[in-house]
Amino acid sequence: MSWASVPPPPGIQRASYGYTQTTTAYTPVQVRQGFSQPYSIQPQYQPYAAPANFPQLQPDPSAYPQQQQPVGSQQQQKIDWPESVRLYVQRSFETKNLLPDVTRAEMETKLKETITYAKDAGIMYTTDWDQMPLPQRLVQAERQQALMGAMGASTMTNAGAVIPATAPANPKKRKSSDLSEPDQSAPMAAASPWRNTKGLSLQDRTSKPSNGKPAKMDEPLPAKSKSQKLAEKRQRRFDGGYQSSYRSPSPPPSDGPIAGTSTVLEKRYLRLTSAPKASNVRPEYILHQTLDLLKKKWRKESNYGYICDQFKSLRQDLTVQRIRNDFTVSVYEIHARIALEKGDLGEYNQCQTQLRALYASGLKGSPIEFKAYRILYFIHTANRTALNDAIADLTTAEKEERAIKHALNVRSALALGNYHKFFQLYLDVPNMGAYLMDMFVRRERLAALCAMCKAYIKTLKLRYITEELAFESDAEAAQFIIDHNGQDALEERDGTIVLTVGKAKQHFELARKEAFRSVDLKGQI
Amino acid sequence: MDALMQEFKTAYSAEKGNDLAKTLSPYLPESPEKLRSIWESGDSRTIREDLEFLFTQGNPARLRLSREESGGWQEVYFAYWKALGEILAVEGQRTDGVKSTWTKVYESWKVFTNSLIRGYTNCEFENWTIPCLYIAGKYSRIFAMRSDAERDANGDDLGATYQDEFDPETEKHKSLEDCGRQLNRIFNTCLSDRAPLSESRKWGIYYAINLLFKTYFKLNQAFLSRNVLKALSAGRGDMPDFDSFPKSQQVTFKYYEGVLHFLEENYEEAEKHLEVAWLLCHKDAKRNLELILTYLIPCHLLRTNTLPSAKLLEPYPRLQELFGPLAEAIKKGNLRAFDQALQQGEDEFVKRRIYLTLERGRDICLRNLLRKVFLAAGFTDDDPPVRKTRIPLAHFVAAIKVSDGEGIDTDEVECLLANMIYKDLMKGYIAHEPGIVVLSKSGAFPGSGL
Question: What angle do CA A207, A210, A211 make, to 5 degrees?
Fold first, then answer.
């Protein structure tokens, strides 16, 4: 696919997300008629954050080069407006389409925003302008949304069972989507312990920064600091084709957490290089809706690139607002589970690190489950120091919990080279631990085969190996041996397949050394 | 202030580094009156002029101070004076009632440390004055830890970061982390001196390194010590002999170097360095000897399969408690007792980071048990009789069942035996189908006299 072959601008994750899918969850019809849905998203001109559900956004790979136009010159460039855009503008101003409660000025502003966005994002030629909601409709929808937001409506209207897109490949394992999540609506109202312990409400902090002046995010700023300018310069270099060169002045880093005002459910993740803008940050009640939406999308579409990106921005919004409560825990837990399922250890590890701190501060969640993962993770990365710390973290009661006991047993079985016990534990893993164990099961099989080849004489039945090393079938065991160059050592005798240990030994020794050397510590996708 | 300057002059003209360092001590409990009078004799408006007067007018000829050097020391004493103000304030000893925090103390001491480092790099401070750097480094670490503890106790929120990739663990030790960087500067100030050895700052290097090690271990970032060792070995060529440094510094350095290897599971190197530390350590430094043994004993267990004698442990009741039950279980080949002993001491073992190492002693325990089975098999009827080397697997299964006390099946026993053979703790092979273990005629259990 030519899209993917173009290197993305540095600093921005290459991910095509859901945009490449022609069937988006929200059709323009829904957007126009279903205003009751609090989470329908309107295109807005926002630096960085592409409106996630830009209606009928269908990028055509062949159109991609247009996005590579030099960004800085765009403002001055004479634009050759496509016919569809002209018609769209025309339609907007048709009398029959005008709405009484939307002023012409509002409409014009919105229209300009919409088209500018399309132009800057390089999707002007790929957008289906015939289906694009008219600006007056967008303004109306936005108002509706703001209203819903103000009322704190967080109920989802799209109830109904969602069937996972794919059947679980391995019945042994639980999927992240199988896990029953506790009801998220309850803890929302409760103030976070963080706020309680500080004795200052969020409001106090934002309205009284240490300099004594009232914090106004939209206040025009005096001269930018040098570091700020540098940061912006750096940002511009990395921005590539994703935004125009113009950036609104960003607020100075405030001392306290900010309170977000954005009501957009989806947001692309971008690493912050300056203080966040309240208008780009979603408040907690919106984030609750976002989480619900993401859970649904994950079950339905299982598009990891998209989900991971959305979770990262979700986490970011929590962090900048210093929201640390049970909801925070559940966000990290769910993201950790999804990352585990997809083998994205880098993200998983980030979540795990935060979870450890969150649990330590006394927040609820599933500490047992995640403490067990943590042990398994450090077994995988062969990080003895961290493993020692993980054990030190456990209380006596926790050590008796099934998941943790299992993880500890895995650890001790491996430490003592007890592969028999190890593979029995592999067959019966609580929660999603099997995804972690999968990461190191190959190298442990090699280690076990090395020991077997040295200790036994002549031959071993393949059946025995299959059973001892928990292969699904003899065929899988044979394949494993062949994959490690042991084909010469396999032969058939009296109707059963046997492994000649003397012949296989050196191959396994070699593969074992290789496998134990390369533990991928940060395997980020 | 005058009195302090008098002390400075005396120490300086006699070139007594330790005396000079004492004039910069911030240790309040030792001489609270003195420190307070130093602080009160200064006036923030005139202190700089006062210092300049004392340094330039007060008989400069006798001190042979160059203009740069004099300016450097003025900066140092100015920073010292300001730091004293914070220290007195935090301890509630200021007569004007001003309060302060340990974080402020740490920051002011950092300024002091930096002025001192600048003195060496820019103002020609001589190498005999290095003990001043020791004082700076030592208290930098102490103040940093107090600052962290204070913030922790107050529950202060630091996170000025907007990213969630920060590690909350390191946030907790923010000051100490910063202190690590300061100490690293001191280390480099010593390391990078190219003056001839007789007047080189390299003589301060092990003091700085030991402080760094302590800090890194405390931060749970022992691996950072690797960089220090790398830098050290890169510059080894023009370093004074290790033997010519004070013994106390040698012992501390060797101990940390040994533990570092220990944590990296490089027991051979660990054993080497710990042994040097053990032999050099002063006989009355019980606490240090105990620390060295804490790591040396597990090393010996794994490397040479030897256990500490009762006589060795006699003076150290804590070590007796720590290793006694384990050693006993290993000697007897009693798996259940071993597991219990390991579990009993788990918290302490984990805290000292020897749990994962000691756990591997179970192999030796198992080896001793299997050896007993071999002995129990007795001799053949041949003349002269030789030991029976073909032993049914069932015998080993029975032995492990008795010793372990847990349900264990034949497959697992086979697995354990395969491991023993793989690790060269036992010589021989397993015949799977007939269920027979054939042991080597000579040296079936290497190193155990059989």
Answer: 95
